[in-house]
Write a structure and sequence with these properties.
Serine Threonine Protein Phosphatase 5, Tetratricopeptide repeat; six-stranded mixed beta sheet; nucleotide-binding; 18 helices; Rossmann fold; kinase; glycerone kinase activity
Length: about 550
């Protein structure tokens, strides 16, 4: 089992109970499990217009996560990706509706329209004032007569909810909801489908591809497109959103479909707001998981044209669990580094052979990125290749600012560059290595002896020694053999790297947390990087 669930039939009720238990007393529910699953405000007194929404589960935190003061009054929860029953919707309406009436906010799916619609008719027969709006913000299929309801629904929850909280009547809330729906457009893109509990996963998206315009229930998208990073993904989405879009201020909602990391979502946000499309965005909601499709590795963008008063309603505080807030988009004022941290660099000097040598070394490490990451994934966190490649790219970019004609200053400059551009402990250790090599070189030591002095300092501070299963196992013998030429150094480095595959315990680095079975037979990625570098230089 690759999901943290118990019995499939209890998933929704257990999720509701967990949400309510962690709400701090703001949420409660109706009786009637398992057929009636309605989450509602614990403080509701029926004095104002009630807002009810819901649908199938699997979109958490929607819809129960948006129940609270300033948004929904109640949420009706169906089975995973299945509409709740008419009785469940009716129970919610009857539980929360007072003289001011009730607004039903329904996403445009057949089951939801039918069940919410019939429940509304039955509630009216009881004498209640009930209004219904249908959200159809999906623009993936522009010619579809019945567009789907996606995360743009949350704009309706927030604006109509804020209006209801301020005392607006049912007609005013309904008119505003319909206006927001007409002004909202959404589309999603995903690298993978979702895993529905109890069902086989449909692996229809090949590696290297993404699906554009897919639904929040795992429905196939409009087309499969090449996946080429965050900027490209945002461009594909905004190309669709910008068709016939008014060139006026908008609010954007950046929604995690469930499986994208927070890091990815922040990168997507930066790509969106820094794009040409970003000039039309005044307010931003997210990035956050708001209306998900279980664990789908994707995102959706919802855009709504701002009308007078919308900004106030969007920014008003809401006492709900899942609304991340709405904020203005602004450019930060970048502050200078504190005194003492601005680097003092040696004057740049040109030396083409040295530049070619360093560029060649960096190119080797960049080319090895994927292989080193795979090795590191067996004994660490899978980023050694990316860390070395990133530092190499930064060094190539900074090449013309380095004192290439003065090797003593060059060692120190490389150390300084790595301390700023190379993450993790590797960056610190290599910065120490090159700084100490620069000190040794300034005292007249040869290049080999200076590098060995740098390694000694790195070992002293970092605590790694031969046999500890680190890059030291390849680097030390290579430097010791350097007087016999690069081929001898390359052979020594390769022998040291292969030796690390026989070591079943590590005494330094992340591999020290890994058990013997996972280490045996796998070369340490840092040692492999050293071996590849010397082997390339020996050719």
């Amino acid at each position: 089992m690759k999901q943290f669930i118990n019995a499939k039939q209890d998933m929704v009720t257990e999720a509701i109970d967990g949400t309510i238990a962690a709400s701090g007393g703001t949420l409660t529910r109706l009786d009637g499990y398992p057929h009636i699953r309605v989450v509602l405000r614990a403080d509701w007194d029926k004095s104002k217009v009630a807002l009810v929404s819901g649908g199938g589960s699997g979109h958490e935190p929607a819809h129960a996560g948006f129940v609270g003061e300033g948004m929904l009054t109640a949420a009706v929860c169906g089975d995973v990706f299945a509409s709740p029953s008419v009785d469940a919707v009716l129970a919610a309406i009857l539980a929360v509706t007072g003289p001011a009436g009730c607004l039903l906010i329904v996403k445009n799916y057949t089951g939801d329209r039918l069940n919410f619609g019939l429940a509304a008719e039955r509630a009216r027969a009881f004498g209640h004032k009930v209004s219904v709006v249908i959200v159809d913000d999906d623009i993936a299929l522009p010619d579809l007569p019945q567009a789907r309801g996606l995360a743009g629904t949350l704009f309706v929850h927030k604006i109509a909810g804020a209006m209801a909280a301020s005392g607006a009547n049912l007609d005013a809330c309904t008119i505003a909801a319909k206006r927001v729906i007409a002004s909202t457009r959404s589309i999603g893109l995903s690298l993978d489908t979702c895993s529905v509990p109890g069902s086989l996963k449909e692996d229809r998206i090949p590696p290297g591809m993404a699906e554009l315009g897919l639904g929040i229930h795992g429905e196939a998208g409009v087309e499969q497109v090449a996946s080429a990073g965050a900027v490209d993904a945002i461009a594909k989405v905004t190309d669709k959103l910008s068709v016939d879009m008014p060139r006026t201020p908008h609010v954007v909602l950046i929604n995690n479909l469930g499986g994208a990391s927070c890091l990815e979502m922040a990168i997507l946000t930066d790509s969106l707001l820094s794009s040409d499309f970003g000039q039309y965005i005044r307010l931003v909601v997210g990035p956050s998981a708001m209306m998900t499709a279980l664990d789908m590795h994707g995102f959706s963008i919802s855009l709504c044209e701002l009308a007078d008063g919308d900004e106030k309603f969007l920014k008003e505080a809401s006492n709900v669990l899942a609304w991340p807030g709405c904020r203005s988009v602004s450019s930060p004022a970048v502050l200078p580094l504190p005194d003492g941290l601005t680097p003092i660099r040696a004057p740049a000097s040109a030396h083409e052979p040295t530049k070619a040598f360093l560029t060649n070394c960096c190119t080797v490490l960049i080319a090895a990125e994927g292989d080193l990451n795979l090795l590191d994934a067996k004994s660490g966190d899978g980023d050694t290749g990316s860390t070395l490649a990133g530092a190499s790219r930064a060094l190539i970019t900074a090449m013309d600012t380095l004192p290439l004609a003065d090797h003593t200053q060059l060692y120190r400059a490389i150390g300084l560059e790595l301390s700023q551009t190379m993450g993790g402990s590797s960056g610190v250790l290599l910065a120490i290595f090159f700084a100490a090599a620069g000190d040794a070189s300034s005292s007249g030591q040869t290049m080999r002896d200076a590098l060995i002095a740098g390694l000694d300092r790195m070992r002293q501070i970092g605590g790694a020694n031969p046999g500890d299963r680190t890059m030291v196992d390849a680097l030390l013998p290579a430097l010791q053999a350097l007087n016999d030429g690069l081929p001898a150094a390359a052979m020594a480095a390769r022998k040291g790297a292969e030796y690390t595959a026989t070591l079943t315990s590590a005494k330094a680095g992340r591999a020290s947390y890994i058990n013997a079975d996972q280490l045996e037979g796998h070369i340490d990625p840092g040692a492999e990087a050293v071996a590849r570098l010397f082997e390339h230089l020996a050719k």
